From TrEMBL:
Protein name, per record: Luciferase-like monooxygenase
Pfam families named among the record's database cross-references: Bac_luciferase
Family listed: To bacterial alkanal monooxygenase alpha and beta chains.
Domain Luciferase-like: 26-312
Gene3D superfamilies: Luciferase-like domain (3.20.20.30)
Lineage, top ranks: Bacteria, Pseudomonadati, Bacteroidota, Sphingobacteriia, Sphingobacteriales
Any one cellular-component term (Gene Ontology): cytosol
Length: 339
């Protein structure tokens, strides 16, 4: 826990969206992508700052595996919201290919593309081997690969034998994503903004963001540390309805804990009929940075969260089975953040 308190007001905190392109039971990825466009268009109206998509593989309920393609689809169907990756798992790709892809996106949608980078595989080890092949140990090259990316985006690379076209000379913000203190130290050393996966790995959250702030070295990209916290939010008109809707999220994480992944399931009235004590404890630890309830409840909890952490931005992910309920949750959250 941090001893210091922060005096930021909710209305001064940007709020954004993290979309895993979740596939719900009875639907297909095609249905999911239609809903993602609808959510992005509504998020734009609600005042959300960014709409990021996550790279995951071999997960039946997550359809954002071809992340850069989806980013282009979302950006092409919106007008002003920033669109990006939360994140591209860089060891899965060569830096040159990422530079070309995001250079293309930034050329199509100038001033709207973010490049969030992570070092995890975004999947299990067997699938990671299928993705990376001989690059399986590329995770150890993560810092050097970020520098390669920055070089490809630099106008100074014009005389190099290997150039990113498009990409060269474009202003594409790079973010370091992470769920541990290693990523915090890296983001601090490189003077880059830092997004923490507190929505599923909150254990080291406070330690990591404190390390990041204490060790931050200003760079040409960023003068002061900047922290995004990703959080689970399920807002509804009443606490009871939000609690019921949250059972879909809890079942999703139960699948992660047990390794029995399934499509996002409809809500249930009582989780005690679904999970064991062990599963409940494990899921509760994973979703410690979650905000479920009515706008009044969530506003109070968010004010406490901002006071404790001082994060510069929150990024909301909402695993809600019913699309209209999901839209309503994002709208309620936007309204409470505006004050």
């Amino acid at each position: 826990m941090v001893n210091e308190t922060h005096q930021k007001k909710l209305s001064s905190i940007p709020y954004s969206v993290l979309d895993l392109a979740t596939v719900v039971a009875g639907k297909t990825p095609s249905d999911t992508f239609i809903n993602s466009v609808d959510l992005a268009q509504n998020a734009e109206k609600f005042g959300y700052t960014r709409y990021w998509l996550a790279e995951h593989h071999n997960m039946i309920s997550v359809a954002s595996s071809a992340t850069s393609l989806l980013i282009g689809h979302i950006a092409g169907n919106t007008k002003t919201i920033r669109v990006g990756s939360g994140g591209i798992m860089l060891p899965n790709h060569s830096p040159l290919i990422v530079a070309e892809q995001f250079g293309t996106l930034a050329s199509l949608y100038p001033g709207r593309i973010d490049l969030g980078l992570g070092r995890a595989p975004g999947t299990d080890q067997t699938t990671a081997m299928a993705i990376r092949g001989e690059r399986f140990n590329a995770v150890h090259d993560f810092p050097q690969d970020i520098i390669k990316l920055q070089t490809f985006f630099s106008a100074d690379n014009a005389n190099s034998r290997v150039r990113a076209i498009p990409g060269e000379g474009l202003d594409i913000p790079i973010w370091v994503l992470g769920s541990s203190t290693d990523s915090a130290r890296l983001a601090a050393a490189m003077g880059l903004p830092y997004a923490f996966a507190s929505h599923f790995a909150p254990a080291q959250f406070l330690t990591a963001i404190n390390l990041y702030r204490q060790n931050f070295k200003p760079s040409e990209h960023l003068k002061e540390p900047y922290v995004i916290s990703c959080i689970n939010v399920i807002a509804a008109d009443t606490d009871a309805e939000a609690d019921r809707l949250s059972t879909s999220l809890k079942r999703f994480f139960m699948g992660v804990v047990t390794g029995k992944l399934e499509l996002l399931q409809p809500p249930v009235d009582h989780m005690n009929d679904v999970w064991t004590d062990y599963e409940e404890e494990a899921v509760s630890q994973m979703i410690a940075c979650s905000f479920f309830g009515s706008p009044e409840t969530i506003k109070e909890d968010m004010e406490s969260f901002i006071k404790q952490t001082g994060v510069d931005e929150v990024m909301v992910t909402s695993h809600i089975f019913d699309h209209q309920a999901r839209l309503h949750s994002y709208q309620l959250f936007a309204e409470l953040m505006k004050g």
